[in-house]
Amino acid sequence: MKFAAIDIGSNAIRLLLCNVYENGEDGIFKKADLVRVPLRLGEDAFLKKKISERKIEKLITVMKSFRLLIDFYEVQGTKACATSALRDAQNGNEIVERIRKEAGIKVEIIDGKTEAEIVYSNHVAEKLDKSSDYLYIDVGGGSTEVTLFSKNQSVVSRSFNIGTIRLLHEQVAKEQWKEFKDWIKQATDGYHPLTAIGSGGNINKIFKMSRRKQNKPLSITKLRDICEFIESFSFEDRIKVLGLNADRADVIVPAAKIFMTIMKAASIDKIIVPQIGMADGIIHVMYENHRQKTAAVKISNG
User: Fold this and answer.
1) Please, which residues have CB within 8 angstroms of residue 300's CB and are 6 or more apart in sequence?
2) CA within 13 Å, CB half, 27
3) Are 156 and 188 in contact (CB under 8 A)?
4) Quick one: 229 exposed, middle or buried, by C-beta within 10 A (0-12, 13-18, 19+)?
């Protein structure tokens, strides 16, 4: 079966098309296609509190294109979620209605708690050492979601309005940083040793730059070295010399700093980067819902 997930983020819009194969109680997930469009809705939402008509038109064009791809793949289910940018934008609900009417896609603006739950639904921790403790960190353009796992169970989860675009435009107050770090310290107190699990486009790119093998952890020292290395280049040279995309070149350092701030506050030495994100979580949510509906039908049919 095929599912389509749309993640309308603060920095980019993503469409993930995924094949899911039944395998007992678990599904085997194989990406069929991934389309990423940099739109930076967060710049309007966080600075002007409203998405401009120009960006709305571009967003609707993207969603119409996604509609065509979704129809081509003949998916069994589609789910579109919008996060921090549309949450903060005064005209967020109007935009959602326009997308529904003009592109034929229903978009749900989700709160930070739901966003953290969707990211958690990737079940990454289940594949790791069940006797260990992990801190799952997802850094986006507008917010950061943090979930603490202990013995394969979610202990506590929280979303913070601290993201790469907000940092880039100095939209995070000192008080927010203090509350952020204090919460991390308090939530992780007594959970040691602790390993971080990182998700999001920026940490994925940093991991690739580290040339580590898949599932091999990245030390905070190596993360700091890569951050300082990138920071030593101008914006233009990050694109020309390092080969970063223009919409990645300016936010990758703020992202690294958020990860390092969390790891330092929680006394974490290493981070695992499984190369997943919000869209992957949406796929998992749809598959779980499909399984539950199927099971319910079987029970009702005797």
Assistant:
1) none
2) 23
3) no
4) exposed
In a domain, 291, yes or no: no
Rounded CA gap, 164 and 150, in Å?
Answer: 28
Instruction: Give the tokens for residue 213.
Output: 């093998």
Cα dist from 11 to 8, 81, 210, 250, 262, whole Å:
8, 14, 23, 11, 21
- The encoded tokens of residue 165 equal 């675009």
Residues 34 and 167 in one domain: no
Number of domains in the chain: 2
pLDDT tens-place values along the chain, 302 residues long: 899 999 999 999 999 999 998 876 677 889 999 999 999 999 999 999 999 999 999 999 999 999 999 999 999 999 999 999 999 999 999 999 999 999 999 999 998 888 878 877 776 655 667 778 999 999 999 999 999 988 878 899 899 999 999 999 999 999 999 999 999 999 999 998 999 999 889 999 999 999 888 778 999 999 999 999 999 999 999 999 999 999 999 999 999 999 999 999 999 999 999 888 889 989 989 988 888 887 776 666 65
Closest C-alpha to 80, from 93, 56, 63: 63
| Domain's final residue, options 58, 79, 112 | 112
Tokens matching residue 61: 């064009």
Are residues 96 and 107 in contact, defined by beta-carbon separation less than 8 angstroms?
Answer: yes
Strand partners of residue 148: 135, 156
